[in-house]
Design brief:
The complex is a heterotrimer of chains A (82), B (370) and C (498). Chain A has 82 residues and is mainly alpha-helical. Chain A has helices at residues 2-25, 28-50, 57-62, 65-75. By secondary structure, chain B is mainly alpha-helical. Chain B has one domain (9-359): Amino acid/polyamine transporter I (Up-down Bundle), CATH 1.20.1740. Chain B has a two-stranded antiparallel sheet. In chain B, a hairpin with a 3-residue loop joins β1 (261-262) and β2. The relative contact order of chain B is 0.22. Chain C has helices spanning 14-24, 62-68, 83-91, 106-114, 161-171, 203-213, 224-231, 248-256, 291-320, 328-338, 345-365, 368-388, 394-408, 413-451, 468-475, 480-489; strands at 31-38, 44-51, 100-103, 117-122, 128-132, 177-184, 190-197, 243-245, 260-264, 270-273. In chain C, the strands form two sheets. Chain C has a five-stranded antiparallel sheet, sandwiched between helices. Chain C has a five-stranded antiparallel sheet with strand order 6-7-9-10-8, sandwiched between helices. In chain C, β1 (31-38) and β2 (44-51) form a beta hairpin. Chain C is elongated and about 105 Å long. The chains are: A mainly alpha (82), B mainly alpha (370), C alpha+beta (498).
Chain lengths: 82, 370, 498
């Protein structure tokens, strides 16, 4: 876990250093978007470092799995669930 | 990234070819042969035809709106509110799509070559490279493409040629082992990956230089056909060499490379092939990340695109490390859920826009003619 | 110091001019001021001012030359000349011998003296005369030190920009060869010349070049490489974006190719810009030798490039991560020799590379008689000692030595420097990620090359955008007859690209 934290922190730091000059010149809208992305980054980073299973994009996608399975079995009645 | 950056039609075709072939050449044909056995190539042809239809769709939209990306003319056709609603799933799915490609490469490396390296290190390294590539702009990407394309395709053909001594043409029969159901199932998989994904190219088609516009159609069709031919070749070689096993072994091209044995000097070269295959993954991921950044910036009407490249890439990196870390769930999403997800998020907006464009045209004709 | 650009006019009063020059050049003890007299009653005075260190040592009296032009006789004291005659003659640009310049303001007088001219002031005339008399020590044209060749001309350019331009004009006798000058630097006031072949060079390259050069103005340009910083696209890139040469024949072929050349007074190096990546593998000798041989040598250079860049990292990746790729017999040999080495391959490679770089750097500054002996002995001794003390394995020494030799095989030194720099990050990334790391490293290098645009031209010009005929020209040397046949088949304005 510590290694993951170090990796995450290093990448975040590098990214902020590279972007700090452009950020200073950016307009409010770009800064807002950047900030929004940073929020996502920290949330996902937290999930990554702590390996918790909180809601993520895959929970959203898994909602489609049910209908998808039905499509598959409609296309291919003989297939076992893969 | 200068909004005025333009590339030629040939360069766009190379990007297109890279995008379609890059990761699919490694992943396919295993899932197809797994489901449909020897008939996998028929499934691919079906999926290819569907892909052609999709290409026709985006080319029609390109012809109507040559200087605007998908999101931009959606704004004018459907209005801003509907556009935002329609494209939020588009963008969300694309975030994961980029992550998915890197998950696949990571999985590929973990199973084959770099078993000890931790996933996050490999993924991070790849994402740093991809982010830097995207930040350099589409002209730089287009400039790098030809040589890398030759490299990748060269290796693919090299593998197919070098295993020629192991071909068993009889493995190709029977042609339809288990009936038509599996063929459709495999076609469903192949349609989801990679063909439905080509819709996103509508975002970057306006990057083509205006004077190249008339050639775009035949170039892109050619690119799609070339991709189809290559995948077909890979499926057929895989069936001819591995026979009934081809469905059980993942990463068919890599398996083929492992079997190359020519007089003791050329053996065990699968690592070399593996490394050249990552070029395909890397490039597809770069193109897709570029499209994603472009989509986000068009959707939110940002003026400085370059600024968000790194955070978007970082989000994708973290997605790749937190979602579907289990190989079984990954397989499930790729084979089952992805085609549906793809269609909802990518293809539906495009179809809606085509319908809207047709209606608008008809409306204008009716008003114009009198 | 505004003295050289002073607009103050030459005064009619001799004493004022004298005072101005004396205050300007106070404490410059090598300045000589002579007072002369002439005229019907010996009452006209003139001053000649010059730096004894700058002019010819033959004590030529330029005042006498000036006055000589005004008398009907060949020799004799200038007793019939008055200052009005002088003023009239020179202001109307009478044919004088030797060639003389008329100066109007004191700034010009000061810069004239600094330029090695003899400046002569006359009483009651508000202009001055300047005669060129410069003679400073210069090197004779000799064999180019850094670019020797077996066949082909053996002259090199020297530190005087005018002589160099003369050498080039002599080789390209066409009015299309244009040269333009500018002076840079407040204190050094170097003459910079740039030349091109009108009709062959692309106008947009020339415009971009001019734009970049225009920014120099007051910077002190001491050497051609200072100029490079203004022309190049990215100062941080390890890859050079201009080529250097000291051979007039290389310069001529570059001009014929549509390149722009630039040179600085005081430096023999000539810059050829824009430099595209593939050109750094070409040497002019290729066209003096037989074509098959030249083609093979070019391929050798390409492999030297790859070896110099990738050999240590490939060795590290193979021995640490991917031992299955090495043929078994070789693998056993390597493992055998690596037994007992306390360091992992990466550290071993670093140590040996570091030693090699130290040796190389030290070898540059040693005086010639000792230099070669020390470097050979040093390399042998250190290599042998390292092997015997088990710090490094013989394979590593071979790898490092081969890398070093390969980097010398490249004709352009500044490209070899780029490889020396890039080797180390590649080694690090190979030690961490193995073959994947090397692939990623190569991709990053390639990406960087793809983004460079020296003077607006893509750095990877023939590779991407892919131009197969140019690529073929670069990798394979064709006989000139074949090339010319191709060129004449193309459009008339297509130029012969090498």
């Amino acid at each position: 876990m510590f290694a993951k934290l170090v990796c995450f922190a290093a990448l975040a730091f590098a990214m902020l250093v590279c972007d700090v000059s452009a950020f200073g010149q950016a307009r409010f809208k770009e800064r807002a978007v950047y900030g929004g992305l940073l929020v996502c980054i920290f949330y996902l980073g937290f999930l990554f470092v702590t390996e918790k299973r909180w809601p993520n994009l895959d929970t959203l996608f898994n909602l489609f799995t049910g209908p998808a399975k039905r499509i598959v079995s409609w296309l291919n009645p003989t297939a076992s669930s893969s | 990234m200068n909004k005025q950056e333009q590339i030629s039609s040939v360069q766009m075709t190379i990007l297109f070819l890279f995008y379609l072939t890059g990761s699919s050449i490694v992943i396919i044909p295993a899932p197809l042969t797994n489901v449909a056995g020897n008939a996998a190539w028929i499934s691919l042809l079906i999926a290819l035809i569907l892909g052609m239809l999709l290409l026709t769709g985006i080319l029609y939209l390109y012809r109507r709106f040559p200087h605007q990306s998908l999101i931009e003319y959606s704004g004018s056709l459907l209005g801003r509110g509907w556009t935002v609603l329609l494209f939020i799933p588009f963008v969300c799915v694309m975030f994961w799509h980029v992550a998915g490609i890197v998950i696949e490469i990571g999985a590929f490396f973990k199973t084959t070559m770099l078993k000890e390296s931790p996933t996050y290190a490999v993924n991070a390294l790849l994402f740093v490279t991809i982010a830097l590539t995207v930040r350099a702009g589409i002209e730089a990407i287009a400039r790098m493409a030809p040589l890398l394309l030759i490299l990748m395709f060269g290796f693919i053909f090299l593998v197919c040629v070098l295993v020629a001594n192991l071909y068993h043409v009889e493995y190709l029969l029977p042609i339809v082992p288990s009936g038509i159901g599996p063929i459709f199932h495999a076609a469903y998989i192949a349609y989801g990956f990679p063909y439905a994904e080509l819709v996103v190219f509508a975002i970057i088609l306006p990057c083509i230089r205006p004077k190249d516009a008339p050639n775009v159609r035949k170039h892109l069709y050619f690119g799609l056909a070339a991709n189809g031919a290559t995948l077909l070749l890979s499926i057929i070689c895989s069936i001819m060499v591995l026979g009934p096993l081809s469905g059980d072994l993942k990463y068919s091209l890599y398996q083929l490379a492992r079997l190359i044995f020519i007089r003791e000097t050329i053996e065990r070269i699968e690592s070399v092939i593996g490394f050249s295959l990552i070029v395909g993954f890397y490039f597809k991921a770069s193109i897709l990340l570029f499209i994603l950044v472009r989509s986000v910036s068009h959707l939110l009407k940002l003026s400085n695109e370059r600024l968000i490249v790194f955070p978007v890439a970082f989000v994708c990196l973290l997605l790749s490390l937190t979602t579907y870390t289990n190989e079984a769930t990954l397989e499930e999403i790729v084979n089952t859920t992805w085609p549906l997800l793809n269609n909802v998020a990518y293809v539906c907006p495009m179809l809606l826009l085509i319908v809207a464009a047709l209606l608008r045209r008809r409306g204008r004709k009716m008003n114009g003619d009198g | 110091m505004k003295s050289t650009s002073s607009q103050a006019a030459v005064s009619s009063l001799l004493e004022e001019n004298l005072k101005y020059m004396q205050t300007c050049f106070v404490d410059c003890r090598d300045l000589e001021i002579f007072r002369w007299h002439y005229g019907p009653k010996w009452d006209q005075t003139a001053l000649s001012i010059y730096f004894t260190t700058l002019i010819k040592p033959n004590h030529h009296n330029y005042l006498k030359d000036a006055l000589q032009n005004l008398v009907p006789h060949e020799l004799g004291p200038a007793t019939t000349v008055t200052v009005e005659d002088v003023a009239f003659f020179f202001e109307h640009h009478g044919a004088a011998a030797p060639a003389v310049e008329v100066l109007e303001n004191l700034g010009q007088a000061v810069s004239g003296v600094l330029d090695g001219k003899v400046v002569i002031f006359f009483n009651d005339w508000n202009k001055a005369l300047a005669y060129s008399a410069k003679d400073v020590e210069q090197r004779q044209t000799s064999e180019p030190i850094t670019e020797p060749s077996v066949q082909g001309p053996h002259i090199s350019t020297i530190e005087n920009v005018d002589r160099n331009v003369g050498m080039l004009r002599n080789l390209l006798k066409t009015p299309q060869l244009k040269f333009e000058y500018l002076t840079a630097g407040e204190l050094s006031r170097r003459k910079i010349a740039y030349g091109y072949l009108a009709g062959t060079v692309k106008p947009e390259i020339l415009d971009e070049f001019r734009k970049r050069i225009a920014k120099i103005d007051r910077q002190e340009i001491l050497e051609a490489s200072y100029l490079e910083e203004w022309i190049e696209d990215s100062g941080y890139s390890p890859f050079p974006q201009v080529r250097y040469t000291e051979r007039p024949d290389s310069v001529v072929s570059a001009l014929l190719d549509g390149k722009i050349i630039a040179m600085v007074d005081g430096s023999p190096s000539i810059i050829i810009c824009p430099g595209v990546f593939l050109e750094f593998f070409l040497a002019n000798d290729d066209y003096y030798y037989r074509t098959v041989f030249s083609s093979l040598i070019r391929l050798l250079r390409v492999s030297a490039f790859i070896i110099a860049l990738m050999l240590p990292s490939t060795y590290i990746a193979l021995s640490t991560f991917h031992s299955e790729l090495i043929p078994t017999v070789l693998l056993l040999a390597i493992l055998n020799t690596r037994e007992g080495i306390p360091f992992p391959a990466m550290v071993e490679a670093l140590i040996m590379e570091f030693f090699f770089e130290l040796l190389r750097e030290a070898g540059i500054r040693l005086p010639r008689p000792i230099g070669s002996a020390v470097s050979i002995v040093g390399a042998l001794v250190i290599g042998q000692a390292a092997i015997q003390s088990q710090i490094a394995s013989p394979v590593m020494v071979i790898v490092v030595a081969l890398t070093g030799i390969a980097s010398f095989a490249l004709p352009q030194y500044n490209m070899a420097i780029a490889l020396r720099i890039l080797r180390f990050p590649l080694m690090f990334i190979a030690a961490t990620f193995g073959g994947l790391g090397i692939m990623v490293g190569i991709i990053l290098v390639y990406l960087h090359l793809a983004t460079l645009r020296p003077l607006g031209q893509p750095y990877l010009a023939a590779v991407s955008p892919l131009d197969l005929s140019r690529l073929r020209h670069t990798l394979v040397v064709l006989p000139r007859r074949v090339l010319l046949r191709r060129v004449s088949q193309q459009s008339p304005e297509g130029n012969e690209n090498k």
